Amino acid sequence: MTHLYFEDMEVGDRCTAGPYLITKSEIIQFAKQYDPVPRHIDEEAAARTIFGGLTACSAHTFSVFILLTTKLQPRFHVLAGMGWDELRLPNPVRPGDELDLELTVLEKRESKSKSDRGIVRTRVLLRNQRRDTALECSSNIFVARRPDVNAPPLS
Amino acid sequence: MTHLYFEDMEVGDRCTAGPYLITKSEIIQFAKQYDPVPRHIDEEAAARTIFGGLTACSAHTFSVFILLTTKLQPRFHVLAGMGWDELRLPNPVRPGDELDLELTVLEKRESKSKSDRGIVRTRVLLRNQRRDTALECSSNIFVARRPDVNAPPLS
Known about the structure:
homodimer; alpha+beta; five-stranded antiparallel beta sheet; 21% helix
């Protein structure tokens, strides 16, 4: 599979992954380990909340976002993530939802200190089958520069 | 257990939770499901990375942060999270690390539209046993106002 280097990416480029089907048993199993509160693990308690039913915990939704970043097409040659800004979960994730991920390149710039990489700022959208946004944020990532870009031309 | 209401909290107040021990098997198990790349699931491959060994994936570190928020002492009467800003993972989490969470109140203000709640901005620090920061961010949360705060005085 081909990986895109920093030089291959343009502002406005998009890559996508998914869908990922969330099941009730996965929601409950995840929350029992990392967010064991009634609205994420107990269907009857969840029915009495403002959401009116079981919803995935925030860590679970974030984890599905990360999983889908490993499946993006086309693939970037990512060296590392630098972090996430303005991370929001505007709509709950429910059993049976099918989530897909879309990354859009917002900005790119060369690293001043490291010649092997560039910094790419992306807009992240994780949406369900009704196109409601389940997670959004912006993310800065280090993307590898094409290894031969600074090499002298072959004579 | 007593929960703190919006009125009980002051700027500068802190609450803490932990420690939480991360094991190698938990790191591998989590990453196999949500970030199945060699540096998180294969010890030999991880040894050849810049980290020189197995590290927890970002979604796992975030999930431990969320788990510890459910164990904070003293407890806030949280209605909902509004999101996370400037989320960074400056140091890797390794097998055997013991993580603890510290939340500090940065700002508080009453909600203009909902009289039952206030908005509290907190600083989040997840640190290991060497006091290295594994995760940091700021978080805005809705905290319940004391139910009787707007009631007329008893005559």
